[in-house]
Design a protein that fits this description.
Elements (H helix, E strand, L loop, with lengths): L3 E5 L6 H10 L3 E4 L1 H9 L5 E2 H5 L14 H8 L5 H9 L7 E4 L4 H6 L5 H6 L4 H11 L5 E3 L5 H10 L6 H29 L11 E4 L11 E3 L6 E5 L5 H14 L6 E6 L2 E7 L3 H11 L7 E5 L5 H7 L4 E6 L4 H7 L6 E5 L8 E6 L2 E6 L11 E2 L7 H14 L7 E4 L4 E5 L5 H15 L7 E4 L6 H10 L3 E4 L6 H10 L3 E4 L8
Parallel strand pairs: 1-2, 1-4, 2-3, 4-5, 11-12, 12-13, 19-20, 20-21
Antiparallel strand pairs: 6-7, 8-13, 9-10, 9-11, 14-15, 16-21, 17-18, 17-19
Helix pairs in contact: 4-8, 8-10, 12-13, 13-14, 16-17, 17-18
């Protein structure tokens, strides 16, 4: 039975109601600092931990719960006579419930300009110690590190004579060790990185168990805080493949500040268009390939309007993502019960590091982040690009970065015209892009061709020129760059070398 509880929380969400519920069931409440103040202001009787231990808080609050009367009260086993006798001999009263959450270390170090000294002060010592003590003795002690569990604790106490079930305490204890492990990992990663070393430790909470992975015979889970960045407004649960596609879509749309709509399939862009009128931007994107988008992902970087919703509703899509949806747009799109509508929160940004599993471990690299800037490149041909060609180069360069290698994109100033992805030969990607543009009825005359990596031979560039491209943008770096440049000059192309490759395997 829970007779005494210790509450000491940084996140005070639900604290007062929880404490009232405990007090109503006759529980004595111990507390510290700001938590005790908040409870007293709410009219709840509280005993300070310093009064319980007979030892004052000291060292600017660094020492307040690190005391045998606290940890002994949490750790002694109620089923062992020797423990009970020792506790009684030393005046150790049992503490049957602990509710603690930790100093916000990760939020602190995420702030721009935070000092090492400030980071160190936000390393919680007493909180993790109490949580671990209580979790170790979960046979007798209920430990709560998440305000979301407060209501269930009170419900169980009401239905179990003032106690919680062992099964519930086991689940809470497991959550504690997960939380403290991640907390310690975050501290270690910060300190290692701050000392100039590489730091990558994988420790993420389980966010959801998915129906299956890429295929129905594969089990899958989602870990981390995906829901902090995207809110599902409508539709059935997300699949493994949906989540991959959504991530690729968010990464792509981050390249564009102007109103833009993009369509993706299997993480590859199949059409991107920009226009002040989102419905027009959609038409530009959709015109690139009117077959591939069926069952695809659509993303806009402005709220979805009613005209855009009507246009999108004409085809079958898996997911639509936007910063918001006009009420009339929602009404139109929510008629499709299986369509997932995702609201993109403004803070959504690509992960700073990419992680991929390999035989025996993982590969970790910096994310290929930041806008794909074509303006830092250099003209390597005899002819500089016209203003229109420069805009088309920039548009294509933003998109090709997000196409699977070998990647080729033909673009105009505000739209894609043909996309070739994932071929073993770059010239084949060019041919596919040209063929796709032909299937869509989009002329390539005057277009710019963007290549994610260098043209190893002139053949790919020549094929693009013969299809109508008058400008090319690529990283350069081939041993045959001189041959490729000569071919560009012979065909009247303007070409820019960016010096930066965007492979996407």
């Amino acid at each position: 039975m829970i007779r005494r509880a210790l509450l000491s929380v940084t996140d005070k969400t639900g604290l007062v109601d929880f404490a009232r519920g405990l007090a109503a069931q006759g529980v004595e409440i111990l507390s510290t600092g700001g938590t005790a103040t908040a409870l007293r202001e709410a009219g709840i009787a509280v005993k300070d931990v310093s009064a319980h231990t007979g030892f004052p808080e000291m060292l600017d609050g660094r020492v307040k719960t690190l005391h045998p009367l606290i940890h002994g009260g949490l750790l002694f086993r109620r089923d062992l006579p020797g423990h009970v006798e020792q506790a009684a001999a030393h005046g150790i009263a049992p503490i049957d419930l602990v509710a603690v959450n930790l100093y916000a270390f990760e939020k602190t170090v995420a702030r721009e300009g935070v000092s090492r000294a400030e980071a160190i002060e936000n390393i919680d010592i007493g909180g993790p110690s109490m949580l671990r003590s209580a979790a170790k003795n979960h046979e007798s002690v209920t430990v709560v590190c998440d305000p979301a569990d407060y209501a269930e604790v009170l419900r169980q106490m009401s239905g179990n004579g003032g106690d919680t079930t062992l099964e519930f305490r086991q689940r809470l204890a497991a959550k504690v060790f997960d939380v403290t492990a991640r907390y310690d990992r975050a501290i270690a990663d910060y300190l290692v990185a701050d000392s100039g070393g590489p730091a990558c430790r994988l420790s993420c909470p389980l966010a959801a168990s998915l129906r299956y992975g890429e295929n129905p015979h594969q089990k899958a889970e989602l870990y981390g805080n995906f829901a902090d960045y995207l809110e599902q407004l409508h539709g059935k649960e997300l699949s493994y493949n949906n989540i991959l596609d959504i991530t690729a879509a968010v990464d792509l749309i981050a390249e564009f500040s102007e109103p833009t709509v993009a369509i993706l399939k299997h993480t590859n862009p199949c059409g991107v268009g920009s226009d002040a009128d989102l419905a027009v931007a959609w038409e530009k994107a959709f015109a690139t390939d009117r077959q591939a988008p069926f069952g695809g992902i659509i993303i806009a970087n402005r709220p979805v309007t009613e005209p855009l919703a009507r246009a999108i509703a004409e085809i079958f899509s898996e997911v639509i993502i936007a910063p918001d949806f006009a009420p009339a747009a929602l009404e139109i799109l929510q008629k499709k019960k299986n369509l997932r509508l995702m609201k993109l929160r403004g803070c959504a940004e690509p992960a700073p590091r990419d992680v991929r599993s390999v035989i025996g471990g993982v590969l970790v690299q910096d994310h290929d982040a930041g806008p794909a800037d074509s303006g830092t490149g250099r003209v390597v041909t005899g002819r500089a690009p016209t203003a229109d060609e420069a805009r088309a180069m920039e548009f294509g360069w933003k998109v090709v970065k997000h196409v699977k290698s070998n990647a080729i994109v033909f673009a105009g100033a505000d739209r894609t015209l043909g996309i070739g992805a994932g071929q073993m030969s770059r010239v084949d990607s060019v041919r596919i892009a040209v063929w796709k543009a032909g299937e869509a009825g989009l002329p390539l005359a005057g277009s710019a061709v963007a290549s994610d990596a260098f043209f190893p031979f002139p053949d790919g560039l020549v094929s693009a020129a013969e299809a109508g491209a008058t400008a090319a943008i690529q990283p350069g770096g081939s041993v045959r760059d001189d041959e490729v440049i000569r071919a560009a000059d012979e065909h009247g192309l303007s070409m820019i070398f960016t010096g930066k490759r965007h492979f996407r395997h």
